[in-house]
Amino acid sequence: MTTGTRRNIHGLVDELAVAAFNRFFVRGRKFFRESSESLGFEEHLHGVELELPEFGGEGYFEVKARSRAVDLDPAFRVAQWKGTGHPTVIYHHGMFEQPFDGGFDQVFPLKKIAVPANLIVLRAPFNQSHRQFLAAVREASNVTVMFAAFIKLTEGLLARLREADNRRIIVTGLSMGGFVTNLHRAYFNTADAYIPMLAGTGRAESSRQRLSASRRSPFARP
Question: What is the pLDDT of residues 44-81, one digit of tens each?
């Protein structure tokens, strides 16, 4: 990406990151190399069934889930629980992020800053390891159902939180997680606020803005 006649340094960083990803991780294992066929997104969305575990505090929770074609393995981590009187943030991780909550821990460094909110980070299906993810994306239908299950899990958690009288629920995410945030807004729109990050076409400019914003966290103590 260029800004006038000068290359945006953040665009260059993005290009180098993509080149490294393709060279060292993907190599010959291209997306959709076995099949580019898939049901429509709404068909996958309606076909995903979830069974949420009970939770009332912090911890890591596996979720029983299935689509019409395959068993799924989403999960979520309640990183911080302050109770129903506080806002709740539901966070979606980025693509190929290992561990799945690594980016979340950077956005919300709880050992360094006080965050006055309940914090929940979700793990998409097929994201327990790099190998599992790369095996799944050989088929387009797996990617479609991954997104569908991701937002279906978000909606299930929202409904559970509303039942427990939680208010002020914010849905957010980074990169792929930002796109999932937008999809939940488009199909359900049941959260109180949506904050997609790096989820548009101006990726380099978004990177610059995120770097600037990270230097002045709204949760940091004065």
Answer: 999 999 999 998 889 999 999 999 878 999 999 999 99
| The amino acid at 40 | G
Q: What phi, psi does 13 have (nearest 5°)?
A: -60, -45
Distance CA 115, CA 108 (A): 7
CA distance 15 to 152: 32
Which residue matches tokens 């890591």?
60
pTM: 0.78
- What are the CA-CA distances from residue 46 to residues 39, 42, 79 (Å)? 11, 6, 29
Report helix, strand or coil for 50: strand
DSSP line for 129-195: SHHHHHHHTTBHHHHHHHHHHHHHHHHHHHHHHHHTT---EEEEEETHHHHHHHHHHHHT--SSEEE
